[in-house]
Amino acid sequence: MALDNNQLLRFTTAGSVDDGKSTLIGRLLYDSKSIFEDQLESITNTSKKKGHEGVDLALFTDGLRDEREQGITIDVAYRYFTTPKRKFIIADTPGHIQYTRNMVTGASTANVATILIDARHGVIEQTKRHAFIASLLQIPHVIVCVNKMDLVDFSEAVYNNIVSEFEKIASKLLVTDVRFIPMSALLGDNVVNKSENMPWYQGAPMLHTLETMHISSDINKVDARFPVQTVLRPQREGYIDYRGYAGRVASGIFRKGDEVTVLPSGFTSKIKSIDTLDEELDEAFASMSVSITLEDDIDISRGDMIVRSNNKPESSQDIEVMLCWLNNSPAKPRAKYSIRHTSNEQTAMIKEVVYKYDINTLDRISGDPELKMNDISKVKIRTTKPLMIDSYRENRTTGSIILVDDATNETVAAGMIV
Fold first, then answer.
1. Quick check: 206 and 181 in contact, CB under 8 A?
2. What is the pTM of this model?
3. Angle at CA 17, nearest 5°, toward 96 and 71?
4. What region, left, alpha or beta, does residue 255 occupy, with left being phi > 0 and alpha being psi -120 to 50 degrees?
5. How far is the C-alpha of 229 from the C-alpha of 19, rounded, in Å?
6. Apex CA 227: angle with CA 223 and CA 229, to 5°?
């Protein structure tokens, strides 16, 4: 199947400390020849200073000095690379429990979650936690990388036991596409090149899996949603009467002549034109940035949403959200925060904490109203004006929100609308 090199795949790595996430990404970049010569020279010199015989591949991603000194990943490191078949963005997220918020941040836009398991230790609490977060964030595809197979003599039996154990967890979660790859990131087995040490594994190595994975259907093409970011009034020759509504198509497809409704006003019109900087288009789909003009003159501003008249989102001031608290300071009871949803910004208040998740056991805890850093909770939020929402399960763009503290301008929470 021929793939368009313009297609971008985002994937996140998750695993426990020392499972080899940074080494895996380093190996992926190194073997796919996606590292600049000066980078390679710098890392080679650092590796020699540390007394390593070869190149320490983990150093390609462990950019912070604290990380290099401790040998752990404590922030989300983004890496970009391209192969002839696809473009990739990698989010290397921390394994420590206290960095749950970083994993949520790194995974929020991912098509694929790669969960690393140390073949010697098998499925542990952190594995369950990462699988749960991947499920919570509705990441469509999961690749379970059973790493360090060289330390268990490339045993098929060890691999099969881990696959069986993880499948039991996945059956309880909303994870539909799960794939398993036995590998050694340190030696390069089944990362970019097929392993000669594991002839019993008939599947493809990791890079080939990422290159050929079908992700087009991950985008919601049914529910047409266009959050307006700004109004374009060029006021120059040839465009004196031009009034365009600019933004990015969140989901679905818009075509010239479509009957649309503007929310929250409820006024209807038809699409007159769909424009980019260079040309006029017949249609626009997620995630294209375009300007839409309408046949009728309607008062539209930033935060409004253009949708197809026969398919509207819910309009509500009371929303239920799965919230991950990101801030060092706990949530203030009934305090007001700015809520940002697509291009819309309102004031909101957390009315009630319905329950919290014990991130270790995945049990629900009721009766604890305090939200602290890394807490994942189901909450009820009330906004000053209605938001045009879909559930996160149906639409990851119009189903997500963030809360911002107006006093500090810090993003304090990220949420998925239930």
1. yes
2. 0.81
3. 105
4. beta
5. 42
6. 160
